[in-house]
Protein 1
Amino acid sequence: MNAALTSLVAVFAALAGSTLTFVFQRHTARQTERFTREQQLRHERVGAYSAFAAALTDFRRSQNDRWHLERADPDSAQFVSARAESYQRRSEATAALCRVRLLCGGSALSELARAALDATTEIHLAGGEQDRARRGETARAALDRFLTDASPHAH
């Protein structure tokens, strides 16, 4: 009986060891999967936020060019080209905004991105140089607010 008891204890010990190993491996696998998912999301956010900032910066430049060329000669080929470019840049910025919104949903960060796009859109409506400069600064500051708030989500 002593040998049978020893064998039984050995079997239970092996079974307990196997069970504990399985539990720890499953826990480690879940942690690794969660970490990988979080890293992937962080990379996607960094990509989306930086693409949005680049697209919005290009759009702001095109809006300023459009404004200046319209003041110089609204019938010129240069103005027509600048206006077409500003439409293209707005389209690119809007596409980048959509990607930001997909990553952060209806959050305050999404609203900051929308406000930055809206402020940039209004640059070409300026009535004079000071107004254009003010609108450009407002758009730049709105982008800075977005980037400041987005930064913790990218770490």
Note: The chain has a mean pLDDT of 91.
Protein 2
Amino acid sequence: MPLAAGIILTASQLTAAASPTLQQGSHGHEVMVLQQKLNSIGYKIKSLDGVYGAETERAVAEFQRDQKIRITGIVNNATWRALKKAKPHTWGVDIEKPKDKGEAISSKGPLAPNGQTILPQNKVKPLIATAKSYIGVPYQFGGTTPKAFDCSGYLQYIFGKQGINIPRTADEQYKLGLRTKSSKELVPGDLVFFETYEKGASHCGLYLGSGEFIHTSSSKGVRIDKLSDDYWSPRFLGGKHIVK
């Protein structure tokens, strides 16, 4: 019988499902168990349907990255064991909840033009400070406020705080700025893009310098990672130079 959305699985249920190896193309009760567990600990999956698709594979890969397990996107015994022990990420553990009331930024003025630099040099430091002030805000697909962000909603929000109106989605944001030949050409304030669960720009972040970027991870919300990370490096699509 299919599991209802929102069920939190017990350790015994998870253990019972721990034997099968799951990967793209798998389907059924075991995949539903996997999806429910990932969703309950913060690795959000939109469709809890028992079908192991690209979104489930992405969530598994991110969980493996965070657990220092070899990143394959395939659920083996080591991944099941780690899932059994995993706890939800909650406020108050290591991050103070932001004091924002969670209002959306009203987009004012025309959208920033594509294919051009759009960020004045004097706004780089304020933009980065604003971006870091939301570290720990949780992820939610479609989120556009400090209550919860998705990756492109986060960028749109922090740029809006600087009076710069950028598009809402990652693929549209990828049209901004000037394409860089390598990550070495990036400067703080530029944008970085990744190809994760689908072709093209499906994830984005703000470059901080020294090989680091800030973004909204589906597992731990707004956080800082390195471009050289085993998870992000092979998925790096390219950078866009937007600083004037």
Note: Strands lie at 144-145, 148-149, 178-179, 191-194, 203-209, 212-217, 221-226, 236-241.
Protein 3
Amino acid sequence: MRKKKLALEYPLRAGKQELLWQLLSTDHGLERWLADKVEEEDGVMHLTWGDPWGEHHTMHANILERNRNNNIRLRWSDEDDPDAFWEMRIVRSELTNELCLCVVDYAYADDIDDLQELWDGNLERLHQSSGF
């Protein structure tokens, strides 16, 4: 069964695209809002949730594309759907001229609502940790 594409757009209060880019594309930046521990090695992001020394869950995402100050696209290493990936893209709203974060992710139809809730929570943490 193929996964469904989920596309989300979040307005941000970020003034500088470069600062936002650091939060989206670096291990240190991602640790502030996406996962508890992130390490990048040889084009692979290792993301850990929970206590790294105790109970935790680690997933690995291959970096497919990274365009400075624009987007990062990744695919989970255990992904079976050849079309599935997840991407975070910085865009400027044509209406407000403010920066927005566009997220694309994939999930089975039954899991789409949960995936949206997950991204909503991630963005809430991004707002809290950065003020964006």
Note: The first strand starts at residue 4 and ends at 11.
